[in-house]
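User: My collaborator sent over this chain with a note saying "see what the structure looks like." That's all I know about it. Can you take a look?
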Amino acid sequence: MDFRSHSRVICLWAALLVFLTSCGRARAGDIVHDDDLAPKKPGCENDFVLVKVQTWVDGIEDDEFVGVGARFGTTIVSKEKNANQTRLALSDPPDCCSYPKKKLTGDVLMVDRGNCKFTVKANFAEAAGASAVLIINNQKELYKMVCEPDETDLDIKIPAVMLPQHAGASLEKLLTNGSSVSVQLYSPRRPVVDIAEVFLWLMAVSTILCASYWSAWSAREAAIEQDKFLKDGPDELPSFTSSGGSSVVDINTTSAVLFVIFASCFLILLYKLMSYWFIELLVVLFCIGGAEGLQTCLVAILSRWFKKARESFIKVPILGAVSYLTLAVAPFCISFAVVWAVYRGVSFAWIGQDILGIALIITVLQIVRIPNLKVGTVLLSCAFIYDIFWVFVSKKLFKESVMIVVARGDKSGEDGIPMLLKIPRLFDPWGGYSIIGFGDILLPGLLVAFSLRYDWLANKTLRAGYFLWAMLAYGFGLLITYVALNLMDGHGQPALLYIVPFTLGNSLSPSLSHARVCTHKKK
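Assistant: Without extra context I'll predict from the sequence alone. Here is the result:
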C-alpha cells in the first residue's frame, strides 16, 4: 500500500468520525421543560432568561453560576452595576414548603426543589423576609419554572431563580462549613446578532466553496488527461487520479445507508463509554486526520510552485512512494497537530482546531464523492433522519439527548469532542462558543461539490448551472439553523433538520431534474 492509499484510508475514517457530530450548537446548561400546557397568565408571564449568580465567600469573589429565571415573580435586573450583593441563607426546612423557622432581613434564600409547587416556595420565602429565592434543581440541567393552570396565589414580589444541582451542592457545602456567602443576581442581555455565528457561517460556506472548486478542478483535470489519452488510441485505459495526489472514492447507495447505521452504532458507543480517556483517544484520531488533511491541502497549494519536488518520489518503509514535497511538509503538519493537542485547553486553541478541521473537511470532500443525485438523496435523507433521531427521539429512550451529551462531553469531564468548528462569542456577556459539527458541512458539501463538477464537465456557466443555487440553498439553510437556535431558548438543534430540506430540495427541483443531473458519465 503506497502513501496515497494510506492517506485515503485515514481520510475515510476521519469522514466517519466527523459525521458523528452533525448536530448544531448546544449551549452549556441546556434548559429543559415543555411548558405548552402552562401558558402565560397574569402574575406568571415573565420571559425565561438566564441569570448570572456571582458569589463571594468571606468577602472574596468566588465562583459564578448560571441559573434560569422563573415565569413568576419580579424581573431580574440586566446590568451588573444595578444588582445588589446580598447575603445567602439556607432554608429551614430545606424544601421551604412551610414557613421558615428563622425570620430573614432581605437575605437570598436557598431552597431545595420538590414536595410542593415552585410558587408555594416563593410565597413562603417572601413572607419570611427574603429578597430572592434560589431553588436548587435535583438534576444537572436547568428547568423552566412555570405555574400550574389552577394556581391563583401569584402575587409574588421577589425574583425566583433555578440553579443546577452542582451549584447548590457547592453553595450548601460552604454555608454548612460556616462560611459567609453573598450573591449577586443579574441577567445581561445577549446581543441581537451574534458576531461569532456570522463568522462561523462564513467559515462553513467558504469551506464548501473551496472544497467544491478543488473537487471540480481535479475532476476536470482527470477528464482532460483521459481525453488526451484516448486520442492516442491505447489498448488499455490507465487509472487516473487527481493532480492533488489523492485517489477518489465514490459512495454508492448501499454504503450511504450502511454509513449512517455504522455511525449510529459508534455514537451509542461514544455515549456509553464517554470518559476522559475516550475523549483523549478521539483527540489523537482527530490529530491524525487533521495532520493528514493539512498536509494534503498544503501539498496541493505548494505544488503549483514546486512541481519538481511534487513529481520526485522516494521510497519510505511502510508508506511506500512519497514525494519530496510531502516529506518537506509532513513534519510541520504533524508538529502543528501535536502542539494543538498539548495546548488545546488554552483560550486561543480554537484557532488550531478550526485550521485542522477545515483542512480535514476539504480533503475528505476532495477524496470522497457522490457519483449521482440518487446517492446524494439517499445519503442526505438518512443523515436527516439520523440527526433528528439522536437529538430529539433519543430523549424518549435514554432520558437525555444522546447527540447533545456526546457533543458536549458531559460524561467525560472535558469540553467535548474535538470534531467541531468553533468561535468564541467575544461580544456576548455569557461567553462560550458558537459551534458547528463537521457533518453539517461535510454531508451537504458532498452534494454541492457534485453540482459544480457536473456544471464544469457539462460546460455550464455559473449563472446557467446548478452550483450557484446549491451554494445559496446551503447558506440559507445554515442561516435558518442559527435563527432557530436563537429562538429555541438554549435547546440544542440538529442543523441538518434545516440544511437538508433547502440543499436537497434545490437539487430535486424540476429544473435540475429536467437537466438530467442524475449521473456523471464515465468516459
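A starting point for your reply to your collaborator: The chain has 15 helices and 15 strands.
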